[in-house]
Design a protein that fits this description.
By secondary structure, the protein is of the alpha+beta class. The chain has 3 domains: 100 residues, Release factor (Methane Monooxygenase Hydroxylase, Chain G, domain 1); 142 residues, Alpha-Beta Plaits (2-Layer Sandwich); 68 residues, Double Stranded RNA Binding Domain (2-Layer Sandwich), CATH 3.30.160.20. It has 9 helices and 11 strands. The strands form 2 sheets. It has an 8-stranded mixed sheet. Strands 6-7-8 form a 3-stranded antiparallel sheet, with helices on one face. Helix 1 packs antiparallel against helix 3. It is globular and about 70 Å long.
């Protein structure tokens, strides 16, 4: 296949023409003198334009690399064989990544995300496990160049955390992180047990899209209860003497959202309301997914009894996803944030695409 043919095929499969048209429209909006009269919409327009610009630049770079590689191959120079082989392998990896990313076509897959971790029963053991998971996701986000912000955090009584809510911003963040929803199980020799006995701990991970635009969900004032309190702890670096932190309880669902990371009570309330709307949106989305899964005969509840992944540190080392059977013995790498293999195995399974198990 020539570079021209490959590029035409790519343009069709990945709708590059459509994305180029959308980019042009967004850049025209970005140049409007009244753009920042609506800061929320301005942020949405500029971020979307920047993402499209980066994606299209990546494809054009790939096209040029393919063209250059074909020209070198046509020279039929044996001394270039090793270099060409390395370039072909690199190009295959890049095309595979872009092909997978193109399959992330859910309504919110290209949005930012809010991730919450809740320690299960078990006191200090579970709270330490929740802290380990927080570190794991922060390392994953850092490795991919995503921005993170801890919106709210409740520290454990002796160690670890009871719960934490984190916003993660970047390309296709929700598309990847939605694979992490569910119960995560840890088996290890307890560092908090003087007898060094083996303990099993659980933590629940929730993920929902952090949609830039206004979320079309109406919340009646009578359906919420708002508390204010003094910010403090790891989630409130702007600790003040006044009650700037906000906790909102949605009475019909029992959902509780807190935010203490902003500088004022008004900002914390706005952010907490945005997160509450995002959570309610995610609930509606999950209901639709469960209805479709039930129709297909593969409905599984997302309750505490349905763990998605086991992390075993004793008597052997193994991380295994129970939904896909994807596994690795390199537990240290996983806990340091190397999660892409697990995420992609799950997402490919959801899309009906075969992937090999293991790393």
């Amino acid at each position: 296949m020539t570079s021209a043919t490959l590029w035409i095929t790519s343009r069709c499969v990945f709708d590059l023409a459509g994305k180029q048209s959308e980019r042009a429209q967004l850049e025209e909006q970005s140049a409007a003198p009244d753009l920042w009269d609506d800061p929320r919409n301005a942020k949405k327009v500029t971020r979307r334009a920047a993402r499209l610009r980066a994606e299209l630049d990546r494809w054009h770079t790939l096209q040029q690399r393919i063209h250059d590689g074909i020209e070198l191959a046509e020279l039929d120079d044996a001394s270039l064989a090793d270099d060409l082989a390395q370039e072909v392998a690199s190009l295959e990896d890049e095309v595979g990544h872009l092909e997978f990313q193109a399959m992330l076509s859910g309504p919110y897959d290209d949005e930012d995300a809010v991730l919450a971790i809740h320690a299960g029963a078990g006191g200090t053991e579970a709270q330490d496990w929740a802290q380990m998971l927080l570190r794991m996701y922060l390392r994953w986000a850092e490795a991919h160049g995503h921005e993170t912000e801890i919106l709210d955090q409740t520290d454990g009584d002796e160690a670890g955390i009871k719960s934490v809510t984190v916003s993660v911003a970047g390309d296709y963040v929700y598309g990847y992180l939605r694979s992490e929803r569910g119960v995560h199980r840890l088996v290890r020799l307890s560092p908090f047990d003087a007898a060094k006995r083996r303990h099993t701990s659980f933590a629940l991970v929730e993920v929902w899209p952090d949609v830039d635009s206004d979320i079309d969900i109406e919340i009646d004032d009578k359906d919420i209860h708002i508390d204010t309190f003094r910010a403090g702890g790891a989630g409130g670096q702007h600790v003040q003497k006044n009650d700037t932190a906000v906790r909102i309880t949605h009475l019909p669902t029992g959902i509780v959202v807190s935010c203490q990371n902003e500088r004022s009570q008004t900002q914390n309330k706005e952010r907490a309301m945005h997160v509450l709307k995002a959570r309610l949106l995610a609930i509606e989305q999950q209901k639709r997914e469960e209805e479709m899964a039930a129709l297909k005969g593969d409905h599984v509840s997302a309750g505490w009894g349905n763990q998605i992944r086991s992390y075993v540190l004793h008597p052997y080392h193994m991380v295994k996803d129970l939904r896909t059977d994807h596994e690795t013995g390199n537990t240290t790498a996983v806990l340091d944030g190397r999660l892409d293999g697990f995420m992609e195995a799950y997402l490919r399974a959801q899309m009906g695409v075969h992937t090999e198990t293991g790393e």
